[in-house]
């Protein structure tokens, strides 16, 4: 067993050049996995992955596993470099928005056969999210989910019997909380905040999409998108957004939600629910299902084990992927990471009551529009939404301007 390492890109590639996918001078098959800080506590992360290595190699003595713990920073560039140079890893954890471009490039391998024996046990939306052109390119080992969190006391004080469950209820309740100088929605309009946790959930709930079905154009400036942005502007006019919404991030600690100045964040994580509980008391924190418009949609992505095309020891790599996705390992990973299993046959040890509430939103999980240029288009939309919140553009003008820029991007091939 090789010691778990945390390396920079230069070191990673040099190590890979010497041994990734080779037998490293022995009769064992070498498999290298690039893992990321899905377990935020570094000490717990090291302990967990060391045990994974040991347990797998005990059961599979002919395979030598190396788990390189990589930082989130620069992930896209480093993964691209490794795949192009055919050095660096055999397996890597990626999200749905990263996979399509590598599938198009032909640098990663389908893994349908890895999942096939237990396919019925996986969350269907976890598999769909990692599928490109009918082929599965990631073995799900965890699933994230977001859900609304809210301050029960603020709603009760305003005479609102229950927190909003629909977009219409959100809008109707806003003036009642505004009368108490409380903004109903802790909306983060800062462009650096992912639209997956700000604007897009409203777009999806209204039945809209970012891209056209063929992926060649954009659709976010259609009626659904305009209605979604107009809802935010209507809430703002009714005192339903914080005054600094155009520049506000989605941090809970030290933020308006924790201070009791806002009542609800519509796309929170389980960790953020814990942070809110620490600030206002866990007994005052409510956790709801995704706000419903035309449908219920919650942003949530699976973490998928992706197999590099250049991998020499494919059978050994697939065996390791199967082990990582097994109910036993998936359950322990969920416990220590705070994420959720991507399978329905997994028991999470000592799962908290709050986590169980978040798990109710898993059937509504949606990974976002998994287009090769999804992140770039998001970067074009966000400033225009901010401009609308600043009163510089109306809803349609803002989204049409963003659509024009995005259409140019899609047509440029860049």
Can you describe this structure?
This protein is α/β, with parallel strands linked by helices. Helix content is 41%, strand content 14%. The protein is built from 16 helices and 14 strands. The strands form four sheets. Strands 1, 2, 3, 4, 7 and 13 form a six-stranded mixed sheet that branches. α15 packs antiparallel against α16 (395-412). The two termini are 42 Å apart.
Q: Short summary of the structure?
A:
This protein has 414 residues and is α/β, with parallel strands linked by helices. 41% of the residues lie in helices and 14% in strands. It is built from 16 helices and 14 strands.
Major β-sheet, in short? 6 strands, mixed
Estimate what percentage of residues fall within beta strands: 5-15%
Flag low-confidence runs: 6-24
Number of helices: 16
Q: What is the distance, rounded to the nearest whole angstrom, between the alpha carbons of the first and last residues?
A: 42 Å
Number of strands: 14
Helix content: 40-55%
Written as H for each helix and E for each strand, in order along the chain, the element string is HEHEHEHEHHEEEEHHEHHEHEEEHHHEHH
Question: What is the general shape?
Answer: globular
Counting copies of identical and different chains, the oligomeric state is single chain
**Cα gyration radius (Å):** 22 Å
How does the helix and strand content classify structurally? Answer: alpha/beta
**What would the average pLDDT be, to the nearest integer?**
92
């Amino acid at each position: 067993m090789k010691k778990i390492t945390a390396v920079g890109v230069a070191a990673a590639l040099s190590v890979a050049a010497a041994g990734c996918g080779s037998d490293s001078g022995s009769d064992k098959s070498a498999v290298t996995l690039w893992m990321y800080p899905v377990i935020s506590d570094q000490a717990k992360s090291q302990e967990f992955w060391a045990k994974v290595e040991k347990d797998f190699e005990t059961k599979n003595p002919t395979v030598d596993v190396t788990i390189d713990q990589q930082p989130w920073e620069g992930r896209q560039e480093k993964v691209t470099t490794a795949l192009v140079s055919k050095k660096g890893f055999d397996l890597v954890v990626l999200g749905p928005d990263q996979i399509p471009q590598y599938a198009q490039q032909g640098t990663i391998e389908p893994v349908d056969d890895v999942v096939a024996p237990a396919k019925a046990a996986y969350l269907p939306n976890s598999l769909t999210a990692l599928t490109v052109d009918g082929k599965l390119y990631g073995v799900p080992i965890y699933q994230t989910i977001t859900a609304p969190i809210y301050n029960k006391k603020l709603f009760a004080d305003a005479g609102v019997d229950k927190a909003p469950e629909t977009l219409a209820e959100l809008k109707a309740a806003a003036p009642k909380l505004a009368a108490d100088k409380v903004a109903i929605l802790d909306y983060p309009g800062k462009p650096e905040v992912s639209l997956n946790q700000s604007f897009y959930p409203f777009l999806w709930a209204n039945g809209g999409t970012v891209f056209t079905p063929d992926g060649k154009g954009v659709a976010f400036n259609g009626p659904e998108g305009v209605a979604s942005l107009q809802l935010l502007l209507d809430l703002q006019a009714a005192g339903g957004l914080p005054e600094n919404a155009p520049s506000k991030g989605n941090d809970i600690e030290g933020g308006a939600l924790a201070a009791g100045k806002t009542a609800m964040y519509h796309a929170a994580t389980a960790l953020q629910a814990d942070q809110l509980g620490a600030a206002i008391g866990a007994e005052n924190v409510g956790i709801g299902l995704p706000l419903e418009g035309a449908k219920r949609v919650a942003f949530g992505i699976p973490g998928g084990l992706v197999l590099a095309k250049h991998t020499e020891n494919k059978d050994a790599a697939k065996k390791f992927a199967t082990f990582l996705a097994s109910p036993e390992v998936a359950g322990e990973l969920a416990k220590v990471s705070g994420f959720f299993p991507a399978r329905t046959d997994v028991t999470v040890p000592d799962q908290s009551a709050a986590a169980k509430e978040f798990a109710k939103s898993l059937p509504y999980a949606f990974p976002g529009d998994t287009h090769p240029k999804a992140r770039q288009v998001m970067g074009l939309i966000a400033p225009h939404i901010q401009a609308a919140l600043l009163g510089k553009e109306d809803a349609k003008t803002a989204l049409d301007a963003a659509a024009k820029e995005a259409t140019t991007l899609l047509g440029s091939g860049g």
